[in-house]
Amino acid sequence: MKHFRRLTSLAILSAMLLSGCGGGGGTWTPSTTSTQSTQSTPTPSTPTPDATYSVGGTVTGLHGLSLILKNGGDSVTLTGDGSFSFPTQAAAGDTYAVTTQDPYWTSCALTNGSGTVSANVTVSVTCSAITNVTATTSFSYTPTSPIAVDSNGNVLVVDNSAKAVVRFPPGSTTGTQVISGLTDPHATAVDASGNIYVADDSNVVKFPSGSATGTQIITTPVALTGIAVDSGGNVFVTDNNMGTVMKFPSGSATGTQIGSGFGHPWGTAVDSNGNVYATNSFNVIRIAPNGTITTFGLINAMGVAVDASGNVFVADITNTVKKIAPDGTISQLGSFGASSAVAVGANGNVYVMDGANHVVVKLVPAP
User: Fold this and answer.
1) Rounded CA gap, 345 and 365, in Å?
2) Cβ distance 146 to 121 under 8 Å?
3) What is the pTM of this model?
């Protein structure tokens, strides 16, 4: 009996031990608690951009002319006095060097035009009209005649006594008669293609480039004293008897009066903006495309010409050549024996017929 109680006690003890070990055959693993540390991710800082600076300034003295300024690959164009700024900003330590492409017969000087950038750059550009000239006798010619210059620098002279047009190549004192057999020539003009137009009595005759055979394109009962042609082939003439300026559209023999009451007009010219200029004994007259008329009050004006920048050159019988800037500012280029005709070449050089000395004089800017 005692032996049975001892076995029973052992059985109970074994059952309790198995229960504490989790039951049959399992492996007891002690439980552990793991603690993970949480770290915040820092926000990346935004880099501060390098400082940049402007390069610009002011321009004075243009008198209505256009000026091109350059700085490296940057370029700006001004059409009058005012401020400017190049489009590209510069960083500290960059170098700059501003240059100017001066208008004809104008000289521009720069202050602070180049250097190293450390702050916003201000350049001062001061422009002034060139009145000093180098005068060179191109060739002698006895008749006091109107003149024109083609795109190649050939000077064309109307010889009324010979009823012809004579051409002088650049640098040559010997001319060649390229048109003859005219009736009463008074003026000539040449277009960009080299076609020559002659105001011959009351007619306008057009001679194709390189040809001595002309075609009468305008017939009017007037006394033609001046002729000009624009880039579109429109022809402008002055009528000395009627005191008018007429415009003939390209290819048309029918003209329109664009100005009247001008006394006895002589020369005429047209600029790239369509402004037409005429001279008479008391004024230089500008006729805008919209018909607005402006007078400049020069006495005894004869020949007139205009350059690519819009400067107007006037030969008068007071023996001088005047230059009128686009804003109306007048300066004097030189004195001559008797200046009666004037023309401007594509390079801006001015040619003057000096009737007293029977020579054509070339004027070159001399800053």
Assistant:
1) 13
2) no
3) 0.80
